Amino acid sequence: MIAPSILSADFARLGEEITSVAGEGDNRADWVHVDVMDGHFVPNLTIGLPVVRSLLTTSDVPLDCHLMIEDPDRWAPGYAESGAYNVTVHAEAARDPIMLAKNLRAAGSRAGLSVKPKTPLEDYVEILKHYDTLLVMSVEPGFGGQSFIPEVLDKVRTARRLVDTGHLRLLVEIDGGINNDTIEQAAEAGVDCFVAGTAVYGADDPGKAVAALREQAASAAGCRHGAQGAQDGNG
Ligand SMILES: O=C(CO)[C@H](O)[C@H](O)COP(=O)(O)O
Ligand SMILES: [Fe+2]
C-alpha cells in the first residue's frame, strides 16, 4: 500500500493535490497521509482538525492521520469521530495508549501507534495488541524531505515476525525518506504500507509516482516471500 504524505504538497491547493492521487487504477493511492504537527511534540506546525474535516470531503481515499502532538489522549479521538480512516498517535506522547486505542476504535477509526527512530519496539509489544497499525518512523518526525534511517528496519523485521507468527495483528507502516532508492529495502524487511511525501508530491505526476512506488515495493516483497518459502522448504 502507498500513502502519499501531503506534507510535501502545495498547501494552497490541498484538495486538488489529494484528487491527483484519488483517480482510478494503478495511480490511485491506498491512503492519503496527513501530518498533524503542533509545534510542541515536534518543532514544526502544520494543520489541525478543521482542515482535516475539510480534506475528508475532497475524495473517497481514506485519510491516514499521523498526529505528532502532545496530549493525543485528549485530541486524537476528534479525528476519528470526524471520519479519519486511521488515526496514529505517538507512543512517546500517549499517557494511556491502551485506553486511547479503545477510544479511537469506539469513535470509528483504526488505531495506529508510532515510534520515533530511537524508541525501542520491545517496550510496546503488549500495547500493540490493541492497535491496528504500527507506524515506524524512518526519520525524526517534524519535517519532510529528510534521509531514510536504515537502522529502523530492525524494528520492521521484528514487527513482521510478530505478525507472521500470530502474536500481533496489525499493518506495518513506514514513514520518512521513502523513495525509489529506499522502498525496496523497506519492502524486503516486511513493510505493508509506505508513506511517501517528497517522492510523490515532488514528482511531475504524483499519480504515476504512486504506481511506480507500488510496483517496486510489490516486486521486492515478492522476493522476500520467495526467500522465505525457500527457507521453509517450500521454495
Ligand atoms: O511524518 C512525517 C515527517 O515527520 C512525514 O510523513 C514524512 O516525512 C514524509 O515525507 P518524506 O517522504 O518527504 O520524508
Ligand atoms: Fe507522517
Automatic annotation (TrEMBL):
Pathway: Carbohydrate degradation. PROSITE patterns: RIBUL_P_3_EPIMER_1, RIBUL_P_3_EPIMER_2. It is an enzyme of class 5 (isomerase). The keyword Nucleus does not apply. Binds 1 divalent metal cation per subunit. The active site is at 35 (proton acceptor), 175 (proton donor). A divalent metal cation binds at residues 33, 35, 66, 175. Its cofactor is Fe(2+); Co(2+); a divalent metal cation; Mn(2+). Substrate binds at residues 5, 66, 142-145, 175-177. The keyword Isomerase applies. It catalyses: D-ribulose 5-phosphate = D-xylulose 5-phosphate. Its EC number is 5.1.3.1. InterPro entries: Aldolase_TIM, Ribul_P_3_epim, Ribul_P_3_epim-like, RibuloseP-bd_barrel. Keywords: Carbohydrate metabolism, Isomerase, Metal-binding. GO terms for molecular function: D-ribulose-phosphate 3-epimerase activity. Belongs to the ribulose-phosphate 3-epimerase family. Catalyzes the reversible epimerization of D-ribulose 5-phosphate to D-xylulose 5-phosphate. HAMAP family: RPE (MF_02227). This is Ribulose-phosphate 3-epimerase. The lineage of its organism: Bacteria, Bacillati, Actinomycetota, Actinomycetes, Pseudonocardiales.
